[in-house]
Write a structure and sequence with these properties.
The protein is α+β, with helices and mostly antiparallel strands. It has helices at 13-26, 38-45, 75-78, 83-86, 106-120, 135-143, 185-193; strands at 4-7, 51-56, 59-67, 89-97, 125-130, 147-154, 158-166, 178-181, 197-204, 207-213. It has a seven-stranded mixed beta sheet with strand order 1-2-3-4-5-7-6. A three-stranded antiparallel beta sheet has the order 8-10-9.
C-alpha cells in the first residue's frame, strides 16, 4: 500500500468529516465511536500538529486527533491526577481508519507518531477512551504501552475504558492475576477498584479476555 502521512490542516476538514461519517456507518454499533461536530474538528485542525492523517491515491484513509482538554473535561481527573499533573495531561482524542484499509496497522502507526509529538511538546500523561465493544482499537492501544486504569460510564451512558500512558516512564505490571471476559463489566470494575490494571487482550475458552495485574512497585 502506497501512502503518505501528513499533519492535517483546516483545508482537510471536509475529508475528515466525510471519513468520520463513513467509519460510523460501517460499525456494528453506534456506541463504539463518539462522533464529533464540525466545530470541534475545525478548531483541532487550526492547532498545529493536532491532526494527523494517512493519505493514499484514494484520499484520506485514516486520521488521528490529539486534544489538550480544559481541567473540567480532563480524563486525568477520572484517574485521580492532581491539578499540577492535569496541566501535563493530553488526550489522544480520536483515531479512525477507513474500513477498506483496516489490517494495515494504520492506527498503531498514527498513535505512535502522535505520542512522539506529545512528548516533544512536554506532556507526560496521555489518556484516551475505548469502547469495550471495540477490541481492535483496545488491542492497538495496549500494544503501544497504554494500560486500562478505569472503566466508567461516559458520553451519554456509554461504557468506556480509560487507557493511560506515561510518556516519561513505562508502567510495569507484575504477573497476571486475573483474565476476565471483555463483556464482564462487573468483575472488571472490582479488579480496577482493587488496584489492578488491564494490560493485555487475549483469546480464551469463552472468547476475548482482558489480562489484569498489579502495578510493579519496584
Amino acid at each position: 500500500m502506497s501512502s503518505e502521512m501528513l499533519f492535517l490542516q483546516e483545508r482537510h476538514l471536509h475529508q475528515v468529516m466525510t471519513l468520520q461519517e463513513l467509519v460510523a456507518q460501517s460499525l456494528p454499533s453506534a456506541e463504539i465511536l463518539r462522533l464529533h461536530p464540525r466545530e470541534f474538528f475545525g478548531q483541532a485542525l487550526r492547532t498545529e500538529r493536532s491532526g494527523l492523517g494517512i493519505f493514499t491515491k484514494e484520499g484520506l484513509v485514516s486520521f488521528s486527533l490529539i486534544h489538550i482538554p480544559p481541567p473540567e473535561d480532563n480524563l486525568g481527573s477520572d484517574l485521580g491526577l492532581g491539578e499540577k499533573e492535569l496541566s501535563r495531561t493530553a488526550h489522544l482524542q480520536m483515531v479512525v481508519v477507513h474500513p477498506a484499509y483496516r489490517g494495515n496497522s494504520l492506527q498503531r502507526i498514527m498513535v505512535a507518531r502522535h505520542l512522539q509529538v506529545l512528548a516533544e511538546m512536554g506532556y507526560e500523561h496521555v489518556c484516551s477512551t475505548v469502547s469495550p465493544y471495540n477490541p481492535f482499537s483496545l488491542r492497538n492501544f495496549l500494544h503501544e504501552g497504554f494500560m486500562i486504569k478505569a472503566l466508567k460510564v461516559k458520553f451519554a451512558s456509554q461504557w468506556r475504558y480509560i487507557v493511560y500512558k506515561n510518556l516519561r516512564r513505562a508502567t510495569a505490571v507484575g504477573p497476571e492475576e486475573a483474565a476476565v471476559s471483555l463483556s464482564d463489566i462487573e468483575t472488571q470494575l472490582e479488579l480496577l477498584k482493587s488496584g489492578l490494571l488491564g494490560f493485555g487482550l487475549k483469546s480464551g475458552p469463552a472468547g476475548l479476555q482482558i489480562s489484569y495485574a498489579r502495578p510493579d512497585r519496584q
